[in-house]
Design a protein that fits this description.
The complex is a heterotrimer of chains A (484), B (249) and C (404).
Chain A: H1 6-11, E1 28-30, H2 37-46, H3 51-65, E2 89-91, H4 105-113, E3 127-133, E4 136-140, H5 143-148, E5 152-155, H6 156-162, H7 164-170, H8 181-189, E6 194-198, E7 207-213, E8 224-229, E9 234-242, E10 249-252, E11 255-260, E12 265-272, E13 285-296, E14 302-309, E15 314-317, E16 320-323, E17 329-338, E18 343-352, E19 358-368, E20 372-381, E21 389-399, E22 404-413, E23 419-428, H9 431-439, H10 444-460, H11 465-479
Parallel strand pairs in A: 3-7, 6-8, 7-9, 8-11, 9-12, 10-13, 11-13, 12-14, 13-15, 13-16, 14-17, 15-18, 16-18, 17-19, 18-20, 19-21, 20-22, 21-23
Antiparallel strand pairs in A: 1-2, 3-4, 5-6
Helix pairs in contact in A: 2-3, 3-8, 6-7, 10-11
Chain B: E1 5-14, E2 17-27, E3 32-36, H1 43-51, E4 56-65, E5 68-69, H2 75-81, E6 83-86, E7 93-97, H3 98-112, H4 120-133, E8 144-145, H5 151-165, E9 169-173, H6 181-194, E10 200-205, E11 218-223, E12 226-231, H7 234-242, H8 245-248
Parallel strand pairs in B: 3-10, 3-11, 6-9, 9-10
Antiparallel strand pairs in B: 1-2, 1-4, 4-5, 7-8, 11-12
Helix pairs in contact in B: 5-6
Chain C: H1 18-26, H2 31-47, H3 62-70, E1 80-83, E2 90-93, H4 101-112, H5 117-125, E3 130-134, E4 144-150, E5 154-163, E6 168-177, E7 182-191, E8 196-202, E9 208-217, E10 222-229, E11 234-243, E12 249-258, E13 263-272, E14 278-287, E15 292-301, E16 309-318, E17 324-333, E18 339-347, H6 351-358, H7 364-380, H8 386-402
Parallel strand pairs in C: 3-5, 4-6, 5-7, 6-8, 7-9, 8-10, 9-11, 10-12, 11-13, 12-14, 13-15, 14-16, 15-17, 16-18
Antiparallel strand pairs in C: 1-4, 2-3
Helix pairs in contact in C: 2-4, 2-5, 6-7
The chains are: A alpha/beta (484), B alpha/beta (249), C alpha/beta (404).
Chain lengths: 484, 249, 404
Amino acid sequence: METSANTLADSKLAGREYQYGFTTDVEMEALKKGLNEDVIRNLSAKKNEPAFLLEFRLKAYRKWLTMTEPLWAHVNYPPIDYQDIVYFAKPKQKPQIAGLDEVDPEILRTFEKLGIPLDEQKKLANVAVDAVFDSVSVATTHKKKLLEHGVIFCSISEAVQEYPELIEQYLGSVVPIGDNFYAALNSAVFTDGSFVFIPPNTRCPMELSTYFRINTEESGQFERTLIVCSEGSHVSYLEGCTAPKFDTNQLHAAVVELVTLDNAEIKYSTVQNWYSGDPVTGKGGIYNFVTKRGLCKGRNSKISWTQVETGSAITWKYPSCVLAGDNSIGEFYSVALTNGYMQADTGTKMIHLGKNTRSRIVSKGISSDKSTNAYRGLVRIGKNATGARNFSQCDSMLVGSECAAHTFPYLEVGNEEAVVEHEASTSKISEDQLFYFESRGIVREDAVAMILNGFCKEVFQQLPMEFAVEAQKLLTLKLENSVG
Amino acid sequence: MTAILDINELKAGLNGVEILKGISLCIQPGEVHAIMGPNGSGKSTLSKVVAGHPDYTVASGEILFHGEILTDIPPDARARKGIFLGFQYPVEIPGVNNSEFLRMAYNARRKEKGLEELDPFDFQELLADKMKLLDMDARFKDRGVNEGFSGGEKKRNEILQMAVLEPSLAILDETDSGLDVDALKIVSKGINALRKPDNAVLLITHYQRLLDYVQPDYVHVLAHGKILKSGKKDLAREVETRGYDWVTG
Amino acid sequence: MIATTQFMRRELTPEIPEGLLSAFEAIPENPTASALRFAAWQAFANRGIPQTSDEEYSFTSISEIKNLLSRIPGNHSGNGFAVTNADRLEQFPLTSSSTPEAMVSAWKKIASEEKDVASALAMALTPQSIALRLKAGKKLETPFPIVCKAKGSRTDAAMYLQLDAGSTAKISLASEVVREDYLNASASFYLGEKAELDLAQIDPIAGSQTLKLHFVLERGAKLRLLTASTGGRFQRLAIEVDLMGSDAEVDLRGAAVVGGVNRCHRHVVVRHHVPDCISRQLFKAVVLGSGRSSVDGTVIVDRGAQRTDAKQLLRHLMLSKEGKADSKPRLFIHADDVKCGHGATVGKMDPEQLFYLRSRGLDPEAAISLLTHAFLAEALDASALTDFREAARLRLLAALEETP
């Protein structure tokens, strides 16, 4: 395992080196590599899970065996050997963590290095954090304060023990176990993740956040997130991801399910910066194969996805909305940046089932170096979705002449009283633009940053303030060497 | 003599929101009325409701046109009866030829009056005359309806349509907005040329500017969905100098 | 954890119906024609009958296309592409040894690289294909009609037209297919330097058809295409354009009215291989009754094809509850200094436009009809083949009247 000191990471920042590429030495407890029914039983037993969950996992596993990997995405990678993955790894320690002081101090330091202090004294004032380290949630902050408002925010393992009826009711209700290859695999082997439940007529008093970190070289991360927002409630949720640098690839196959009931709203924001592989050789990096889907079950409910994707060797994800409730609204705001040898195939699906449902898609793709960046989106208007409306705007920016930008929208309309519109454009940062800035005394880097921020503005505006600033910095940093 | 337009205690709105909160207005033949009001006062709503826009619903009250209740009459039938709405933002209709469209509209109105339809040749002559009146370039005819027109061109095109259709009531919604002084003079000239003893004009405007060129007989100030003040043409100047706050308080 | 040699991706074995192979073998050999036919058969055999997983058939019924392509070809004389007044063009039946070597090999190259399975089969199974040529600098002022006849359950037909440098032509292309019959046709066009082609094509009024139009454009060549359709039992038009020389321009326009239970599918690929070319795609379709229309349009900008200017607009107007409209406008861009844009819309008539027309006294039917005509006009009006274009317009308008 490679360990790099904090200072090393810092000093290479300017050189666009991956900032979070260090590993943490903690004693880990892991299952052996490979997957079969015994591994699943073992995993479920280790986590002391109720019978329904073991049944759920086994069903998913049997389904998965009958499925094949999807090949339609515009990405290339060597076949994955699913028997060569560690399906469960967790920091070795007592089974129940009573407080933060019992968390391995190495892990606390790791999250601090990542800018996520979990320490009760230093914790972020208005953000509650659930930190997931490899397969396991290690700490959740502000839990008590949230419970005072009736808001449940804990690891999904804990929720399985504490609120099994909610888990049984909602788990797999949005992403069925057999939905797709990776979702089936996740349903069989997911180890941890976050659970959020907002009771009726409650505005969650603070931002909720999960921070994911893959640490072990041979482990896959299969986390599961479930957010249920009851009638008339509102929650804003943030997700951040990093991983150490390895020469091999790690698999991240998460599933996120969101449910909104009548008049409820979930805002889900992601800043993803997994290790994307060596920018020169293309070796290593995370395979980010994620299924994210929200169900607007209730009338007038709303689900809004915002993502800033700047990492991973390969990204395959389509945060989607099923607009079942009448007048419900789905939104997707995305910035996807690829550099080096990264490949991204990302977008969304807006499935309009209810009447007068609305959806809006704003996708900004930036590709540079030898990377490939594809937007893939589906807008489907069902037969009964009278008055449904969609507007999609997909813009690509190319930086350099060896990269590629693709746009694959699918529009399927089965109702005459619907209006679906899609627009796409392609642009570049031109020498003329840069010269214009420079002639006004603005240095090149600032000019690039300004142009990029202008390009992504509509998406950044959707992010909570701190994250928007972070996301802007991230983009500029990643592209510094690609422009001019 | 019956009034051309007689509105009684009209309440109307959009998507369940009441915008007009009881409006009464009577326009006699030969009169020009002006409705002034701040933004959001309901001026455009009034024009759309009289023209019969399907998005607006009348909650109570009635609109009489030449003594006939309009409520259940669709917009095209109203137009054939002689109501003309000059739009604030005329929509672009690419692919529909401007003069073809005008001829269809003109003949629909003639048919209603029991007159024979005009053939394309005669219509072209009529159109050419009207276009001269408004100083319009002949190329206008061959373009799509409002397609790629500037703001001023669109407004002039509205007045051209009015000139061709010779309505008995013309409602001109902010026809002066977006016009420079020269264009304003031309448009005003057009409106004035069409004033006749048996028709009427309802001007809807935010500013007093247009009223320097088209002299109204009556001026009404609309705010919060109600006519708060009515008077002769001096009222317009008073509003201009003292501001709408003077009326709305 | 990723082992590179563990599993091979599952390769599908190409599905080749026995009947097709016998039909292919039954066609008498001929030194010129067989080279083309063998190349085309190989191209087909590499892929076989389409499988469900094929992206290019995402909006078409795979079982329908399988059924059609598996039909046993008939061999009716008089079927296939035919030209009258052939003196204006040089015509070579491919079975003749007088066909210039260069033309045969160019066509053979197209056949061997054909990825469209139906088109490969059309070239492999046609008993008599024709090659046409317009000599350098020659200009065909009056439109030149090409008709493809298809009597019998299945007809395969193929043609190749070479426009030599600086020549210009106006050509119309129509096919005759009756109700239960099926025509599978492939037409390839080569536009030499600065050659110009105005092509107008109309789908048959009934029956099933899969038609491939393939164009290669050299430097400075210009192509203008109008395709019109009212759909049929199953109709699929595939258009492939390869811009091989810089400063070439292509303008593709489609107009369709799909009503009843008709199907109309369009599949378009425009590939910019070199810098400084311009491409335009405008496809419009009105959907009525239980009609079903799909347009799947792709623009590919190859590495190095700088200063490409590509635009694509796919629009559907839905006038019925039971209809279905699908679009997929795709961009693949591998160069940074390009202007590429696309748009797609599916929707009902614009209520504000409708109100505007009604506020001028037009009754609802007249207003809707005017707006529908206008919607189609943008796609129809550009074609220089005025007579053909107006005939197409009449057919589309008649189809509008037919479905209440």
